[in-house]
Specification:
This protein has 148 residues and is mainly alpha-helical. The chain has one domain (13-145). The chain is built from seven helices and no strands. The longest helix has 33 residues, at 9-41.
Length: 148
């Protein structure tokens, strides 16, 4: 009867790293859900706290032009209140950015929990974020030329 060789130490290190990355993903998901729930129930209080803490847009203070994120805090507040149109009026890019983050978060869950490596470096995924990067650049230029 032949015995199998022992599992190398590298496999246990890899398993440990996978465990901790999955653990971090689950913990961050719980924190995001808690923040969203508290933001929905305490919108006014959270908006006031953010206004007190926020120093404003440093890029705009230094250069005099709007960055792609200007108005993002007000847009996030509008989204928490359920005012999607208002969020688009404050900052067109924020709802699109949140959609991009949601896509990335779903991809991370698929990579870590389906044991399928095709989600790791999908061409569609890469194209999506290249298009997103172009949208950020176009938004940056358009909002400063047209004063949006």
């Amino acid at each position: 009867m032949q015995t199998l060789p022992p599992i190398p130490a590298a496999d246990t290190a890899l398993k440990r790293r996978i465990f901790w990355s999955r653990f971090a993903l689950v913990i961050s998901s719980i924190i995001i859900v808690l923040l969203l729930v508290s933001g929905i129930f305490y919108t006014a209080e959270m908006a006031a706290a953010v206004r007190e803490i926020s120093p404003g847009c440093t890029f705009r203070k230094l250069t005099g032009i709007s960055c792609p994120g200007c108005g993002g805090t007000r847009a996030a507040g509008a989204l928490l209140r359920g005012d999607i149109w208002g969020a688009f009026q404050y900052n067109l890019l924020l709802p699109i950015s949140l959609l991009a983050l949601l896509v990335e978060y779903i991809r991370l869950w698929l990579v870590h929990f389906t044991h399928n490596n095709r989600w790791m470096h999908s061409r569609t995924y890469i194209r999506f974020f290249v298009i997103y990067a172009w949208l950020v650049c176009i938004w940056f230029i358009a909002r400063n030329i047209f004063g949006i």
